[in-house]
Amino acid sequence: MFKFRKNIKKLFFGLLSIVVLIIIGSVIFTSLYPLAYTESIDEYSKEYNVDQFLIFALINVESKYDKKAISQKEAKGLMQIGPETGEWASQELNIENYNPDILFDPDTNIQIGTWYLNKLISEFGNDADLVLAAYNAGSGNVQKWIKDEKYSHNGKELHNIPFEETENYLESVKSNYKIYKLVYKNYIEKPNSYYSKYIKFINYIIKYAKQI
Prior knowledge:
This protein is mainly alpha-helical. Helices cover 68% and strands 0% of the residues. The protein has helices spanning 2-32, 38-47, 52-63, 83-92, 106-124, 128-137, 139-146, 164-189, 194-211.
């Protein structure tokens, strides 16, 4: 009887250790690939017909979900909107009383960033490399590259990218995109599933930990 109880105790603590490791691993993973501002991303991804997983991935690469992020080139907020793009978007979207600091507002930033992605998709089609390269390096540069045989063999696709930063950017966003879609697809499509509730639980732990 004593041996049986001892084995049960070992099994219990073994299972408990596995559960703890899974939770710790999940917390670390979701810290690296956060899921936030889902309502705004869902709304504007539908309004501007942009893949929401692309938006999740791009925000993670651009700002690590830091709404106060600012680059050396004065790009601001979650999707790192530059001054000229912000000004242009404010006119096109009829944003009243626009000033650069409004780009730190998550909802406004996501709206402008998603609207801009839609513009780039309209310009370059569904070629993710062209769209992402344009988001990072500017559409003017990409238009020059696809007309140059050194960078495009057919005038339609990029075969070489002259900016190392942009090349690394593409790889990073596409890698993040694959991970976000693989991990969070079920969460987005089936918000009431056990898996989705588990993801919400993990995000609650992270949110609580940040407040301590």
